[in-house]
Amino acid sequence: MRAGRTSSSTRRAGLLAGLPLLLLVLTPPPAGAQSVLERLPNGRPDLSGNWAIAVSISDITGNIVRVDGEPVTGDARAIPYTPVYAKLRAEADSRMFEEPELHCYMSGVPSHLWRQAYSGAGLVIQHTEDLVVFLHEFQGSRRIVSLTRREHLPADIRLFMGDGIGHWEGDTLVVETANNNALTWLDTVGNRHSDRLVVTERFTPVDNDRYEYEATFVDPEAYTAPWTIAAPMTRGADPDAEILEFACVEGNTDHLHYTEDVGGTSIAVPGPGAPANPPD
Amino acid sequence: MSARRRRADASPRGRIRATALALLVAALPILAASAAAQDFTPPRNRFGQPDFEGIWQVLDPAPHFDIEAHGASYGVPAGLGIVTDPADGRIPYTAAGLARRDANRANRAADPIARCYKPGVPHLMYLPFPLQIVQSENVLTIMSEYMHNTRFVFLHRGDHFGEGELDLWNGDSVGRFDGDSLVTHVFTFHPDTWLDRSGNHAGGPKLEVEERFTLVDADTIRYRATLTDPEDFTRPWTIETRLYRHKDPAKQILEYECHAYAENALGPPDLPEVP
After folding, report:
1. Is the pTM above the cut of 0.90?
2. Which of B206, B144, B133 is nearest to B171 (CA)?
3. Domain boundaries of chain A, sorted by first residue
4. Which residues in chain B touch residue A247, judged by CB atoms under 8 angstroms apart?
């Protein structure tokens, strides 16, 4: 979908606006130059379109760039877990019945942004002056981020995709997502968070087709210090690629393999309220 | 007003002009009211499209339970029905379609909604959950709070995926703007969707749904859907209801992740094998 392209009517309006603009529109950029950042009518960068963020869904730790504010490389790229969550992470292989994908859960924040793409669409962003909507085919996950609200939802409300509110720092979009539940994982290898997780993401334009993505994780229950990942974010090659329907619950018996009803390993069924964190 | 102008107004031609003006002024409120009722001109977005963005919801939960006229029962409010054509308000089932409806009624556990499945189209539009519309140049996205169901109405293509090759619970939606209305065509459906909680149904490879969204005022969408399927229905038929704008600025789409709250209780699915 060419969500980010200038409409023909907008182009016509531009042509009518005068010769200088006409020349600007018709003059191709020099080879190798950065693409000109497209902007919304309010002047903010327009993130609409298809994207890929280069974070590994199989292990998020490879993208860690800072722990507790200090740059890290190599083996120091490790999540600063509290003892309880270090144990949960170490037991991941024996706790795969909790893996969110098996339960058809939406993938959570931020890993839904770089889940494996089943079609060419990858991450799709629809952007207006008031909203940024992140859409992905995997589990049909979806995050509607308000650019107008300033306060998060009451703490009693816990969501698979959290409560995202955004603001601008110059041309950088900053999204803070709170009200997360504890049921999503950060990757498929079993890196975890509690329901006190707050993720702060920064989308900084390099040019129209490239952004720098950064996410900082703060979770006093699961982590002893804030930690940050970074990755390049690039515009998709096929702007017409579409997200298809993702039916996971429909006809699915997988979850029954993990319940006592069929002799499987039980997982605590999350009730209508906030799913509990693992006990200390 | 100058003396010269006053003289001119005192002339016969001036009196006629004044009378005509008075009549026109008197008629203005009537003209304005009729324009508002019949010819509301919706605002346009930056792509020149009529602007449907906002959070919308039906007010009446009754069609979710039964789209035909029905009396109340336990947990089910009475409803006048939303079938506007045929005029009798009844779904024009074929014998096979009616038999399937009756079988559904005898086995409500097979209701896809009871298993947290996608509701299908048009049922998605009158669920008792809010939905948010956001528009880009080539796609209009409808995001329901129910099970994060998201419909993409693709505006850049008129053709569907190959007939029978896909069975999508919510169908494949393509759309265009017809004046101030959004007109969609939805096709290539899964066979097992219900239109309501009472066993009325539509689905499968022959079903075609044409929807028409029209802003009748700034805060109301008139929603029409015409369903055609020669196997289930003797003729095309139409439902009509209203979607109302949520005007509380604090309103937002939250989550109703149905299956996550009842995973152990859902039990094995009772669906025929889909080839």
Report:
1. no
2. B206
3. 49-242
4. 117-118, 168-169
